[in-house]
Amino acid sequence: MTDLNTLGLAEARDALRAGSTTSKELTAACLKAIEGAGALNAFVHHTPEIAMEQAAAADALIAEGDAPAMCGLPIGIKDLFCTKGVPSQAGSRILEGFLPEYESTVSGNLLGNGAVMLGKLNMDEFAMGSSNETSVYGNAINPWKVDERQLTPGGSSGGSAAAVAADLCLAATGTDTGGSIRQPAAFTGTVGIKPTYGRCSRWGVVAFASSLDQAGPMTKSVRDAAIMLETMCGYDPKDSTSADLAVPNFEALMTGDIRGKKIGLPKEYRMDGMHAEIDKLWADGADMLRDAGAEIVNISLPHTKYALPAYYVIAPAEASSNLARYDGVRYGHRATLDAGDGITEMYEKTRAEGFGPEVQRRVMIGTYVLSAGFYDAYYNRARRVRTLIKKDFEDVFAAGVDAILTPATPSSAFGLGEMTDVDPVQMYLNDVFTVTVNMAGLPGISVPVGLDSKGLPMGLQLIGRPWEEGDLLSSAYALEKAAGFVAKPTKWW
Amino acid sequence: MSIDTSTAARVAKLARIKVEDDALPALAAEFNNILGFIEQLNEVDVDGVEPMTSVTPQRLKRRVDVVSDGSQQQAVLKNSPDAREGFFAVPKVME
User: Is B87 part of a structural domain of the chain?
Assistant: First the structure.
């Protein structure tokens, strides 16, 4: 029999329902895999006792019959989600020792439906990064390895992506502010979906940029993403931007029948310096969808080029405001003060010690663009450009386009440390294909489609209409079936 | 727009992040690099375009103006680095 930790959510759910395995067995298999995968540094807080208790409770519920879909399925939770009584540090030193007194709505939805929490997953500090190299826990490592180099699993949900790709869990939660689910999914040969802004409650998820942040699942298949997303979603009065809309049965909508659908290829996504293999992958993906019966059309999203610079105004601005709460008073780290230090010194020293360099940089950029005299020139201008970016998408959807196919990333996974000496803007370019989707609040999914000449996974992104994740998952399922991506990393850890 | 070290120091102060004097030139250079990237936005014609306030067209929900939560002093103070006698303790704020 295959090792239980290598199963996906759907297979494990079906096995549980058929009585051919138990949640305790699944959970024990994952815990054993985690124990042997310290080298990946994916799980940073381990909760084996909680997991085995939850597994026992899930088994009891399954035995009674009629258990919910996620019941008994062991998953990992990104460190950004507050989990009651379990460290939740957002990968930052400033939240060292923080034990939430409450459960985030999304993790609560999962655990309340019987999911088993194996532990917390590594991530870039406050979700600010594209390589998981800004984490206080150190780098998470990509299980994919083709030479002596250690590769990044991407970021910010790098631990989630590494854990799913290495079969340490059946699936994991991620969050995505500019590409933090979809880029790591592409780098690790896994599936990641960011739903429409407002689908998942942000309550209890440590805030980075509130108008862009969305949670989503990171899984081994499109079907698994549909199953897990449905449980994560739902209206929550505790998040004022949460959508009061019924959550459809995404799995049922996922037919994979895309005959007659119009799929757009935006010409602005063909960028200078894009890797030839990514370009070919994109063309291959379009052929696959055409062969499955879709109509492929060329489209234009004219403001694409400005999405990234606008993002690097809006996201830091919101971050500077959100991260003002880390003041050394209510939770987390407080600096040791010298005699005579007052409250301002306490704030300044606490935040200098508690925040890493990338977080400090973004908080200060945000402070600058919001400061008197620059608010209009930077922040308001960026918000106007954001309106235009959203309108680009509205126009193509109004013209009958059902989904948009793009590359997920400009390259496959790069080596850890390779970007250390380049300027921060070069690292930001990792999000060039994904950030538009956050700016427009749309659902986007990354699907593994092929391997490059080095043997590393590459993904394509599909972007859907707002609130039509079911339709988007259906297109993604068609792409997944046509691509037939089954490669797994060879175990070296 | 070019940021000098005194502007960098002012931004650090506003952000309440202690930056040593010898780190300010490098910080100013980083700011200039990032702001240079952002300057591209000046190419866009935004005349008559409304700044986005909500990415999904929705009204904020109203609720009845009543107390819906509370009496959680212990839970609120639980994670404080310095809580005393039911309060958050901080260094002296006023002389």
Answer: no
Closest CB to A343 among B3, B56, B91: B91
Beta-ladder partners of A407: A460
pTM higher than the cut 0.95: yes
B49 to chain A, any CB pair closer than 8 A? The answer is yes
> What is the rounded distance in angstroms from the CA atom of residue A473 to the CA atom of residue A485?
16
- ipTM, two decimals: 0.96
Chain B residues in contact with A439 by the CB 8 A cut-off are 55
- Asked if B55's CB is within 8 angstroms of A383's CB, the reply is no
Cβ pair B85, A264 in contact under 8 A: no
Over residues A139-165, the pLDDT tens digits come to 999 999 999 999 999 999 999 999 999
Q: Is A242 marked active-site?
A: no
Binary contact (B61, A237; C-beta < 8 A): yes
Q: Rounded to 5 degrees, what are φ and ψ at A4?
A: -65, -30
Q: How many domains does chain B have?
A: 1
Instruction: Give A398-449 pLDDT, tens digit per residue.
Output: 999 999 999 999 999 999 999 887 878 888 888 999 999 999 999 999 999 9
- Which of the residues A180, A242, A320, A474 is marked catalytic? A180
Please report whether residue B78 resides in a domain. no
The residue whose two tokens read 């309550």 is A203
Annotated catalytic, A20? no
Does the CB of B86 have a partner CB in chain A at under 8 Å?
no
| Structural domain that includes position B15 | 5-42
In the numeric block, which tokens belong to residue A370? 């919001």
- Three-state SS letters, A136-161: CCCCCCCCCCCCCCCECCCCCCHHHH
Compare CB distances from A334 to B3, B34, B82 and report the shortest one's residue: B82
Q: Establish if B36 belongs to a structural domain.
A: yes
